[in-house]
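Sample intake sheet
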Amino acid sequence: MVVDFSKWEERCITALAAQGGDVAHDLAHVRRVVANAQMLAASESACVEVILPAAWLHDCVTVPKDSPQRPIASQLAAQQAVTWLREWHYPAVFLADIAHAIEAHSFSAGIIPRTLEAKIVQDADRLEALGAIGLARCLMLGGAMGRPLYTAEDPFCANREPDDRAATVDHFYAKLLQLEHTMQTASGRCAAQTRTVYLRDFLAQLQRELPAAPLSARL
């Protein structure tokens, strides 16, 4: 079944605008994830009738990163998305796969994507954490949460385990630099590798600007 998603797109935008979100999970973020998903879907020949609604609604329920409910945020989003899509009379044949793609997109949830479409939505969202956009989002969110940029004693986690609750730079080592190894599709891996180089270049430049940083910093 081929579906023209354009008539549902405005409903997604209206619903998301009413929901709000944090500084790193706003409507601009969603639009970029949709663009990433469209790019990957074209490369991987996947079902856009699943991918587009899943990408648009993957963050329709947002939970703060420091909330104990964070690991179930994607499941809550999947439930809300299916509720809306049913109300909007979206073809029911796609709903189970859409729900799974939304549930599996989250890093915190740890749900393994079982379908190509779920893999693409996960990759599309993770690309948002890398490159220039990923860097900007990381710094914005760290500032919004009141975290310092780095830990003065060991800014680049040279001699300690990273703790992204303590400093924003720690988040690079705790999560961001690992994401390229978690990508599910060939086109996603290629894009992630390029964007990860940008993050490593930023850390290298930051190290040059912090003369007290240990020379053994892991970049």
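Comment: The chain is about 55% helix and 0% strand. Residues 150 and 169 are 5 Å apart (CA to CA).
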